[in-house]
Design goal:
heterodimer, A: about 325 residues, alpha/beta, Rossmann fold, 4-stranded antiparallel β-sheet, 12 strands, globular, B: about 325 residues, 8-stranded mixed β-sheet
Chain lengths: ~325, ~325
């Protein structure tokens, strides 16, 4: 089966005050139709940058795809023109953002914003687009969709705004939906509602979802495969359950263990959390020929400082970019 | 012997809300409504709840950073709400705050040492040398290097900034430290560093924490007892083991089941309790139970009378009509 999307050796450069930084460094992955793939990592590791590159939304004059390709429908999106990307965005690939308040236009009603997508991509009439907007709001479980369609974003709660965003993103039945931290700004009960909604809609429309998050729990619930990113590079890739059972990269291991997970039966003794000491290196360090996690890694050896680790492929579809992956 | 450092009784904070033009009637939003809890010396009480539940307002009222309408806040036996001017300044030394956002809670124009020294400057009468020594000790206690004293906030990472905020909170040797979402603005890997530091400091200095958070994993890790808040009310209060093993209020249960988990067997076994809809309008609260419109087990009675926080087991209290019913049913069974 050919994958829906194939990213090959993608490199993205950002121009910063201190020079050109390689913020995505030789990233390759595939996305199959209907699956959910999750990107995990701390902030500044390149998760959102990857998403923006897929959408052709890298910051103008600052970021660019330096090399590599993004193959979607036999077309290389990395070299597509702005007009072409415009036709694809919102139609074949669409995105929901973290902050529903700042990513909706405050001076247009929800209905107008959803209808705009339909009119732009599917050439629907005003009337037809409007009634479809109502249907979409209903599909994302906004009560009284007919009445709420002429609400402005400020009249809705955070959860409802995120639903409206989802309605907008799914309006043209895209093949790929990119969700960039879709629930980080929401309360946990609302997060549960949104995840439930996304899974249902995915089953109905068959869209593939790229879920960007820093929450391992969310990954475990939502995704089949995951990619752990660190300092612009892929640290680990593979099926979610396997990685959680046995992470092969020390960074993945740290990410899983450093979070206090809820236990049903907590003991009265409390242990310290496992720490990943230090922080993500600054952009200046990106792209060096060494393991960029070395400074925070408990397993660091000489080799890690001398050369960049190569991906170690395991039989179970898991792969980790670590010199010590086999020993872990 | 008073082992209770903090005793909050019937605390109510309301805000005036104006809707519509100047002639409309004033209405009130009860951000914290008749809330009571106690914290023992050297322990941590966590207040959990979603945004808008009143947890931060309750904490602000305890430190008297907002004024409460009624109730009392006894710190070491003294009512903070009754203190005025100089007495208030004195008692403020005993309550310090660690804020959520380490980016906006540090003055960008002050050096780290000046930030940490500030509570001493304004609340204590120590000499310059003494203060300098205290600052040195605080830097060491929170894991910052002495040469970082002269740096400005922007030269630190988020985690380091939160360490400065913690050092500042410790400066006056407070009896109570209020941590308002101290790690929610930090990256997951840095969260663990700060949580471990807070634990270490608690053991070292026998600190008492009032810990505000929406993250139940963090709460389970940090707290000794927990108050669950919903729409300004405490709906459940219990010690840590009891709350997580045996959650009673339907809201607490929904909250617990909503947290995504990496534990595969737990995920398979546990049916997620999805609570539909949004919380009610806080200005026009329903007359009955505030959770009734989202509650999976609500009955007509829930829309009529508001359940009171009642004890169901040793130290475990909850406000729900039906928890009580189950309990008395169990009693009649013998």
């Amino acid at each position: 089966m050919t994958p829906l999307l194939e990213v090959k050796n993608l490199c993205i450069e950002l121009i910063t005050r201190e020079g050109v930084a390689l913020v995505i460094d030789n990233l390759s992955f595939t996305l199959n139709a209907g699956e959910t793939l999750s990107f995990v990592g701390e902030s500044g590791c390149g998760k959102s940058m990857t998403a923006l590159a897929l959408m052709g939304l890298l910051p103008e004059k600052v970021g660019r795809v330096a090399s590599g390709s993004i193959i979607f429908n036999d077309e290389n999106l990395a070299q597509a023109s702005n007009d072409r990307m415009r036709a694809i965005r919102g139609n074949d690939i669409s995105m929901i953002f973290q902050e529903p308040m700042t990513s909706l236009n405050p001076v247009f009603t929800i209905g107008e914003q959803i209808a705009e997508v339909l009119r732009a991509h599917q050439a629907l009439s005003r009337k037809a687009a409007w009634s479809q907007a109502i249907e979409l709001l209903d599909a994302v479980r906004i009560p009284n969709a007919k009445g709420r369609v002429s609400d402005y974003p400020f009249q809705m709660s955070g959860g409802q705004r995120q639903r409206a965003m989802i309605a907008m993103a799914l309006a043209c039945r895209p093949k790929i939906l990119i969700a960039d931290e879709p629930t980080t700004a929401l309360d946990v009960t609302v997060q549960a509602q949104i995840f439930d909604l996304l899974s249902d809609l995915q089953q109905q429309t068959g869209a593939a979802i790229i879920l960007i998050t820093h929450d391992m729990g969310a990954v475990a619930e939502m995704a089949e495969r995951m990619i752990v990113m660190y300092a612009g590079r892929k640290a680990e890739l593979g099926p979610v359950d396997q990685i959680i059972d046995r992470p092969r990269h020390p960074y993945t291991k740290g990410l899983i263990e450093c979070v206090p997970h809820i236990q049903d039966d907590p003991s009265s003794e409390r242990h310290n959390l496992v720490e990943v000491p230090g922080i993500v290196p600054s952009l200046r360090e990106f792209g060096k020929d060494q393991c960029l996690f070395a400074s925070r890694c408990p397993y660091v050896t000489e080799t890690c400082l001398k050369s960049r680790p190569v991906a170690k492929q395991f039989k179970n579809d898991q792969s980790a970019d670590c010199w010590h992956a086999e020993a872990l | 012997m008073i082992s209770e450092i903090l005793k909050v009784e019937n605390l109510t904070v309301r805000f005036e809300v104006k809707r519509g033009g100047g002639w409309t009637k004033k209405s009130y939003l009860y951000a914290v409504d008749d809330v009571s809890f106690t914290v023992k010396k050297g322990k941590t009480l966590a207040i959990v709840g979603e945004s808008g539940s009143g947890k931060t307002t309750a904490a602000l009222a305890v430190a008297r950073l907002v004024n409460a309408q009624s109730g009392s806040v006894l710190l070491d036996g003294q009512d903070i709400l009754q203190k005025q001017s100089e007495d208030l300044r004195k008692i403020r030394q005993k309550v310090q705050f660690i804020f959520q956002d380490p980016y906006s809670s540090l003055n960008p124009r002050k050096r780290a040492e000046a930030i940490v020294r500030e509570p001493l400057d304004s609340l204590s009468s120590k000499s310059t040398d003494e203060k300098a020594q205290i600052v040195d000790e605080l830097f060491e206690a929170v894991g910052l290097r002495p040469e970082q004293k002269r740096l400005f906030p922007h030269q630190f990472s988020g985690g380091q900034r939160q360490r400065i905020g913690i050092a500042r909170a410790l400066a006056t040797q407070p009896k109570l430290i209020i941590c308002d979402e101290p790690v929610s603005a930090l990256d997951v890997a840095v969260q663990a560093q700060i949580l471990n530091l807070l634990h270490k400091l608690q053991k070292e200095f026998e600190l008492t924490y009032l810990f505000i958070s929406h993250d139940l994993g963090v709460v389970q890790h940090m707290s000794d007892s927990i108050a669950v808040m919903y729409m300004g009310k405490v709906v459940e209060f219990a010690d840590r083991l009891s709350l997580f093993k045996n959650p009673q209020h339907p809201y607490t249960r929904a909250l617990l089941s909503a947290v995504p988990t990496v534990n595969r067997t737990k995920r398979a076994e546990q049916k997620r309790i999805l609570i539909p809809g949004d919380p009610p309008d806080p200005v026009n609260l329903p007359s009955g139970c505030r959770f009734a419109n989202r509650c999976p087990i609500a009955k007509p009675v829930c829309n009529i009378s508001e359940p009171k926080l009642e004890s169901i087991a040793n130290g475990h209290r909850t406000a729900c009509h039906f928890v009580k019913a189950t309990k008395s049913a169990l009693h009649s069974l013998g």
